[in-house]
Amino acid sequence: MSSSPVAGPAPSGPASGSGTGPTGSPASDRDHGPGRRAPQIRPVSAGSRRGPRRRVARYWPQYLAISPYYVIFTVFMLFPVLYTVFLAFQKWDGIGDMHFVGFQQFRFLWDDPVFWLSVRNTLVIWVLSTVPMLCMALVLAVLVNSTKRLTAFYRVALFIPSITSLVAIAIFFGAVFSNNFGLINAVLRALHLSAVPWMSNEWTIKLVISALMTWQWTGYNAIIYLAGLQAIPSELYEAARVDGAGPVRIFRSITVPLLRPIILFTVVISTVTGMQSFTEPQVLFGSEAATNPNSGGPGQAGLTTLLYFYHQAFDNNDFGYGAAIVWAFFLFILLIVVVNWRLVQRKEPRP
Amino acid sequence: MDLSRRRFLQAAVLTAAAAGATAACGGGSGSSGAKDSKNLTLWYWAGGLSDKVVADAKTHFSDISLKTSVVGGDFKTKLLTGLRAAQSAPDITGVKGEDIASFLPNADRFVDLKTVGADKLAPQYLSWKLKQATTKDGKLIGFPIDIGPCATFYREDLFARAGLPTDPAQVSAQLSTWDDYFKAGVELHKAVPKTYLINNIGSVFSMMIGQGTQRFIDEDGTFIGDQDHIRTAWTTAVKPYTLGIDAKINDNTWNAAISGGTLGTEIGAAWHALDISNAAPGTKGKWRVASLPGGPSNLGGSFLAIPATSGNPEEAFKIISWILSPENQARGFTDAALFPTAPAAYKLPALTAGDAFFGGQKTIEIFGPAAEKIPSAYEAPADAAVSAPYYSELTSIEAKGKDPEEAWKNAVSQAKQIAQRQGVK
Fold this sequence. Notes:
The structure holds two protein chains of two kinds.
Chain A: H1 3-6, H2 13-16, H3 25-45, H4 51-58, H5 60-87, E1 90-91, E2 99-100, H6 104-111, H7 113-146, H8 151-163, H9 166-177, H10 183-190, H11 202-230, H12 234-242, H13 247-258, H14 260-275, H15 279-285, H16 305-315, H17 319-345
Helix pairs in contact in A: 7-11, 7-14, 7-16, 8-11, 9-15, 11-14, 14-17, 16-17
Chain B: H1 5-26, E1 39-44, H2 51-60, E2 65-70, H3 75-84, E3 92-95, H4 100-103, H5 118-121, H6 127-132, E4 143-144, E5 150-155, H7 156-161, H8 168-174, H9 178-191, H10 201-211, H11 228-243, H12 254-260, E6 265-269, H13 272-279, E7 287-291, E8 303-305, H14 313-323, H15 326-336, H16 349-352, H17 364-372, H18 383-400, H19 404-421
Parallel strand pairs in B: 1-2, 1-3
Antiparallel strand pairs in B: 3-8, 4-8, 5-6, 5-7
Helix pairs in contact in B: 9-11, 10-11, 18-19
């Protein structure tokens, strides 16, 4: 989801390498090249044991077979990621000279009210989407697990939203929630209720984005839960039923505790993806104004941190600041994931 | 196969080194040799040039193989990437009007068009538009495709119901200041309650900025976004909001608002006519065009530029000047609503003919004089970035009911912060 903005600088990145000048980049890379490569090869060739080298030689088809992933990963993922660390300390407009500015970008970031607004927006959207999403996913998974017929159909149906194009979903949601002409407001008016300004109120904007994310990822999480549910031995359920436990009791005392590792997994994954919400607000509120693109809709209520990063880097050509934003935010996501991990793990049943 | 951790790491490191070497070589062979290539590439975005004129250019320059690409998505980002990796840069490229200022500090990435013959042609084109693509030391990096002279589009039928003048000349005369315009809006809203005067207050703000001779940063690189000219634009922009004649449309419901009659007027550039007729084909014949309150303004309008890596700059400029000749610009106007940058085109039949969507009105009578009188203002590279907070805060007023005074203070402090980060004094 987030790979599109992050991968943005990738094609341009390798061309300059770690070069400092606008033109002399290849030379400076070549200075590094052999120096870096030599120590890597020497331990293999100069080592007294001849084994490893022969093994590498013998298994070369296997190494070759797995290499495309590593090559592509290095060029298009690892290198750009490391390059942004370097960029975060530069002032750079994309084609001109780079200027080293030290921690200045981070100091600006600390004082930037819009950055903090975007972090708050992201957190609110994440909570509003993740909590109902995981609860509904669990309930859906239990329901599908208990049916005997059409299970394959249900699984496919659950999975479809997550493979539908996000842009298409966002356009659809935009039409459904449109203020004056949307489906929901039309229904509200038909029922003689007052229409809700979904796309311009500070809170309903976040609600619409969250609803979109919930709709997209509930089924995906349900499938993961379903896999977990099928790993729970049926004897446990039988025993519980013999002891007279009702479905709710069974759900609370058997299903949820035994699913805890799976829940933990989905919480972490949802945190990472939820925090990276970018396409949803970008399509819903992206470029409605030529004068102020990607500002996150009315009152910047839909401005998530990644959208703010995109705006700074690609609309304002402020690539150094963009890099600083994503790195600060990366540390923030890390923190949230750790906190989540601890919170969910603490629900350890006391013996 | 048992793969020990050590062996795995070795393999990983080796692949990484190989990939690193590949990446390092990528930018090595950027310089293309001869400057008389017969294969030229042209990048533009959908609607950026008339497709018919471009197709004709291919046959007109028969000794050159001209390859054209309509580049979708974020055009500026793709162009930046192309310019960095010199080999993938086009020989001729479109540059959007809002991006040209940010390319000026890197003018060395482009061919100075004056060196390939633009100085001879320049007098035929609008001088204020050429100035936008000229660096401080006089290099011209872009040749103007089109401009966006602004006007008031209004619904004649709704004006008639409100007892307002309906004839374009009368409307232009009576609604000549912003206050007169807002006063008419109040009457319009009273007579037709579901109709509002303006789309959102940001549009008034951007029009007013365009009417001035100064923007957010002056030529010495000093931040002037807190001075009177911006402050006046701000207070004027907020007025329709307080008068209750602001439709507050900041989302994608504009199309529906235009076709449903929610908007009685629309202030926008000449190319906006195409948006209106696309959004509301059913209102054909009901719209008219009048002068913009408070004087002419410009919004948008793009350029063609030649990257410094171009294989044949001289031939490239011949193609540019052919595509942008007055006759072909007139075709571009009928074909893609690109408003010509050469005043000679304004007298050609394509422009002087009446427009059926506007009830047969000869819209050039409004746009033509406006185009020649647009004030020229210095646009700093960081101008777009610095102006962004003002627009965001204006939407905050509309969306959250934020106090305009507080919104102004926040906009200025944010703009100052961005200005400081961009190296503005």
